[in-house]
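To: structure subgroup
Subject: Chain for Friday's discussion

All,

I'm putting the inputs and outputs inline so they're searchable in the archive.
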Amino acid sequence: MLSRRLLRVKVAKSLYAHLKSDSTSLKASEKNLVQSIDKAYDLYFQMMSLVVEVARYAESRQELAKQKKLPTYEDLNPNRRFVDNKVIHLLATSDAVCDELAARKLSWSQYPDAVKDIYNRLIEQEFYKQYMAASACTFSDDRRFVEKFFASLDEDEALADVVDEMSIMWNDDLSFALYMSMRTVSSLKHDTPEITILPKFKSEDDLEFAQRLFVKSLVNYDDNIEIIDKYTKNWDVERIAFMDTLILSIAITELVEFDSIPVKVTLDEWIDIAKYYSSPTSSTFVNGILDKIVAEFRDSGRIKKSGRGLLE
């Protein structure tokens, strides 16, 4: 499931793109936001199919080795533990996964070198060597191996470059897709007949949340900037990153427009996003400014929370 964190990041990126492009079409920018969210879900299936493609590549290498003029005993009797991994077999034969891949027109067919390179890096990994050398292998061992495979890719910069090349909309989405893939695999048991894919959203109103946050942030942007300016008078304006201002503006919108989201959740989310998507000192800056704005809004009654929003 795509997290609210990812949806917030998508909103921030879409608002940034809209403002920097001087676009006048809110509808077109909102459409791009929805498309970028759907593309993030695409990457989930693309990643689940990757381990299948790497295993197929490994098997093709074994078949080629058998065709040597003078094959060795190892060539003729290869270790097929990775190739025959039961979890990978489930992913490869899953109607649910295959149908999504076909419907979304996703594959690795145009990136054989990427699959080859991932395999070459995989066989150097210690968890791979231990898995292949084990005296016995259970379904749980197969599952843990696939989980470690996905986890290892989170730090794979070469793969991140390939993913960015595949789609500009996949920039920074790799970690989310890998986490979703690991969650899917971790739920499997030896008697699992079919892969249960994760839904796109945890809640039915998640997409509405993203769309509304984007639209309201854009409509209220100028008003929000006035509020931010009031609390940044003593700062060198040229040294305030545009992304900091944009994050503050969206956070203000979320504080005011979403009465079911606790103030602490909004603050924690946007302060953390600032840490990763702006400058090294942004989280401290955003935290300080938001604290002052929240204090003012509470005094003036602009922040009205209900239900879950009352939790602190």
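Points worth raising on Friday:
The mean pLDDT is 94.
Residues 26-66 form the longest helix (41 residues).

D.
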